[in-house]
Amino acid sequence: MKEKTYQFSYTVVEDSSALEQNDANLLEEARALTSVAYAPYSRFHVASVAQLANGQIVKGTNQENASFPVGICAERSLLAAIGTLYPNEIIETMAITYQPQEGESNRPISPCGMCRQSLVEYENRVKHPIRLVLAGSEGPVYIIETAKDLLPFAFSEGDLK
Ligand code: THU
């Protein structure tokens, strides 16, 4: 019998003013974008903005539906857009933020399980990590070097063989 440990490192930045310029810009764009999320049911607006290796910036927001499970998260709407507009382009960094219609946004949120699976699929597809910048509208920012760190034991293509 053997006990194993899973651990990963991430960076905590005290607030967005201490970020490097590229990350600060991306997060600023994401914060502004929360206003166009379509979230009339949860009233929880999420936005994500990606910096691609080709220099393009692509944006996504959560898009809900009266039939609740039909709704899609900001991260997966963004990945779908990137996969369509710039197939196989590397995503260097993705900023993710949120703004509830009522309540605070002063700490990071991290992608839901389904989005983690989609992020890992994209990393495997283009063989490049996606750097995540996670924050609220204010407060600390988490930087995670690869989405894989958030999904240990991920199911992936190799498991189908
Ligand atoms: N949501 C996202 O868009 N991304 C996340 O990482 C967490 C949750 C959305 C789904 C739903 O529209 C709303 O936030 C509340 O769960």
TrEMBL record:
SUPFAM superfamilies: Cytidine deaminase-like (SSF53927). Residues 21-158 form the CMP/dCMP-type deaminase domain. CDD domains: cytidine_deaminase. It holds the Pfam family dCMP_cyt_deam_1. Its EC number is 3.5.4.5. It is an enzyme of class 3 (hydrolase). The keyword Ligase does not apply. One of its GO terms (molecular function) is cytidine deaminase activity. It comes from the Bacteria. Keywords: Hydrolase. NCBIfam families: PRK05578.1. Belongs to the cytidine and deoxycytidylate deaminase family. This is Cytidine deaminase. It comes from Niabella yanshanensis.
